[in-house]
Amino acid sequence: MIFEGTAFKYGRDVDTDVIIPARYLNTHDPDELAAHCMEDIDKDFIDRVQPGDIIVAEENFGCGSSREQAPVAIKAAGVSCVVAASFARIFYRNAINIGLPILVCPEAAGDVQAGDRLRVDLDKGEVANLTRDKVYQADRFPDFMQEIVTAGGLMAHVKKRTQGGETNA
Question: What is the Cα–Cα distance from 97 to 140, expressed in whole angstroms?
Answer without folding.
Answer: 17
